């Protein structure tokens, strides 16, 4: 049965390009197009599509405003199309927070090698249609939440650290996970698959929401309690190095498990350097990046946690890790932060 897609974009030229790209995949049927939020609402009621492609920048009601209302009133898988420049990164991060399945750079549609990724995203998004019932994310507070008593008393053991990998659905998942961390959390390193222009905005967003300090990882940055390091997108992998005093390394190299930066490359370095001092978590995401690295962590004595199927937007990366015996335990997202912190407590 084909995936029924509705294309929402105010540009007739872009509509045609998106339709042509999607229709080249025999598993996708473009059932209609819309040039505005009002037209999209009518087409959704009439056609009941499996997936929307939605432009962020539209006249009248913007793509973000329309997405917020759609997720509240009629949750539907959405792939956002945007110019993924630094200017568009904030809006794209907001879209992912609101529940968009993923974002795609519309400027790459004219490059056949890049455009082929869009049908794959639409097919993957359609698989989540029957699970689009999760609650809306909490609106961003003006500042980081105040620490509860138990968080104020938390103290990580000497040498303890946390490593996390995520992909599709990871923006929402990481916000939920990291807002549960106390200000003096164990040093935490993260690979989240996203375009290079996104990671600085996402790190800044997390820094505003969380009690610990969150920053893009830089070469030589020391791993210290109260700090969370997000791998910068681009052409380098994040690793950890050092002995008693560990630090971040940014290593050039080819894609690993299809990604750059790669969760596998990070987890393998954590296994080598930290061993049983480390605790790992693999969250929602397509593919299998991180599974082999997490198995290496577990083999070196790390406690390893996988997000369960029920709370994953895409049960891909955690599923592969579970299948190969890489995870100690699977947990719903809401319980993972507490477990990671418990394993690192002094």
From TrEMBL:
- UniProt function note: Involved in chemotaxis. Part of a chemotaxis signal transduction system that modulates chemotaxis in response to various stimuli. Catalyzes the demethylation of specific methylglutamate residues introduced into the chemoreceptors (methyl-accepting chemotaxis proteins or MCP) by CheR. Also mediates the irreversible deamidation of specific glutamine residues to glutamic acid.
Superkingdom classification of source: Bacteria
Q: Domain CheB-type methylesterase: where?
A: 156-346
Question: EC number(s) in its UniProt entry?
Answer: 3.1.1.61, 3.5.1.44
Reactions mediated catalytically: [protein]-L-glutamate 5-O-methyl ester + H2O = L-glutamyl-[protein] + methanol + H(+); L-glutaminyl-[protein] + H2O = L-glutamyl-[protein] + NH4(+)
The record ties this protein, via SMART domains, to: REC
InterPro entries noted in UniProt: CheB-like, CheB_C, CheY-like_superfamily, Sig_transdc_resp-reg_Me-estase, Sig_transdc_resp-reg_receiver
Q: Would you tell me the protein name for this molecule? A: Protein-glutamate methylesterase/protein-glutamine glutaminase
Q: What is known of its domains?
A: Contains a C-terminal catalytic domain, and an N-terminal region which modulates catalytic activity.
Gene3D superfamilies named in the record: 3.40.50.2300, Methylesterase CheB, C-terminal domain
Instruction: Spell out which residues are annotated as carrying 4-aspartylphosphate.
Output: 55
Q: Which CDD domains match?
A: CheB_Rec (cd16432), REC_CheB-like (cd17541)
> What keywords are assigned to this protein?
Chemotaxis, Cytoplasm, Hydrolase, Phosphoprotein
Gene behind this protein: cheB
Give the free-text PTM comment from the record: Phosphorylated by CheA. Phosphorylation of the N-terminal regulatory domain activates the methylesterase activity.
UniProt KW Cytoplasm keyword: yes
Q: Which GO terms describe its cellular component?
A: cytoplasm
Q: Name one GO molecular function term.
A: protein-glutamate methylesterase activity
